[in-house]
Write a structure and sequence with these properties.
Layout (H helix, E strand, L loop, with lengths): L1 E7 L3 E8 L2 E17 L6 E8 L5 E4 L5 E2 L3 E8 L10 E17 L5 H8 L6 H45 L7 H43 L2 E2 L1
Antiparallel strand pairs: 1-3, 2-3, 2-9, 3-8, 4-7, 5-8, 6-7
Helix pairs in contact: 1-2, 2-3
């Protein structure tokens, strides 16, 4: 009797380094196959396990007594019979394989959430972890400025749309009417608001550009392992 159970371990990042804004990492994948053999007969039996060979995967276990063909690993063993003393009537043979997969990511294209995932990895140096934390801080500060700029741009757009509705309405009433005066005051106030918004936007766009440049410079000069 024979049974096969397979399982895959969660991928693990085993190394990381940064060179000129490029994050190079090695991901390790581990697959395990457990062959459970049972000899229910009286006499001992010999078994041959043939485990498929995958070119990009390294066999970690068993570490010895393995034959290798073009397509498979072969493992031979004998099991004593059920009525024999000291016999191991059943036995588990574990085939553990690992696969290393390199990956290169440009940090300028990675969101803060993904960088935090890399920060949480155990197999990185304190220097690299600190550099990634600094990058996240810079990215979040930039995002705050960008959001404020976008909100003010939306406000400018909303005022312009409102003015486009008010001006035609003003033409339908007399200049001395209460409605005309109300809309006129509204336009005057909106022009003041637009002036302030444009001043704020000029500062925010300059700040955003400066922060973008600082991040690009930080990444260009970043070389850590």
């Amino acid at each position: 009797e024979a049974k096969l159970d397979r399982k895959s371990e969660p991928e693990e990042i085993v190394s990381m380094k940064i060179a000129r804004g490029a994050l190079t990492l090695q991901r390790k994948f581990v697959d395990t196959a457990v062959y459970t053999l049972k000899n229910k007969r009286d006499k001992s039996r010999r078994y041959l396990i043939e485990h498929p060979l995958r070119p990009d995967w390294e066999l970690v276990e068993p570490a010895k007594d393995i034959e290798k063909t073009r397509d498979a690993y072969r493992f031979r063993l004998a099991l004593d019979g059920a009525n024999q003393r000291g016999g191991g009537k059943s036995r588990e043979i574990i085939f553990r394989e690992q696969h290393m997969e390199p990956e290169i990511l440009m940090l300028a294209n990675i969101q803060s959430d993904q960088i935090r995932f890399f920060i949480s990895q155990k197999n990185i140096s304190d220097t690299l972890r600190q550099a990634l934390k600094e990058l996240v801080g810079m990215q979040e500060a930039l995002q705050t400025v960008r959001q404020e700029r976008q909100q003010k741009e939306q406000r400018v757009k909303a005022i312009a749309e409102e003015q486009n509705r008010i001006r035609p309405n003003m033409q339908t009433v007399t200049k001395n009417s209460e409605s005309y005066s109300m809309w006129e005051r509204k336009l005057v106030q909106q022009e003041k608001d637009l002036d302030q918004l444009n001043v704020d936007l000029e500062k925010l766009r300059a700040d955003e550009q400066t922060r973008n440049a600082a991040i690009a410079r930080f990444l260009a000069e970043l070389n850590v392992e």
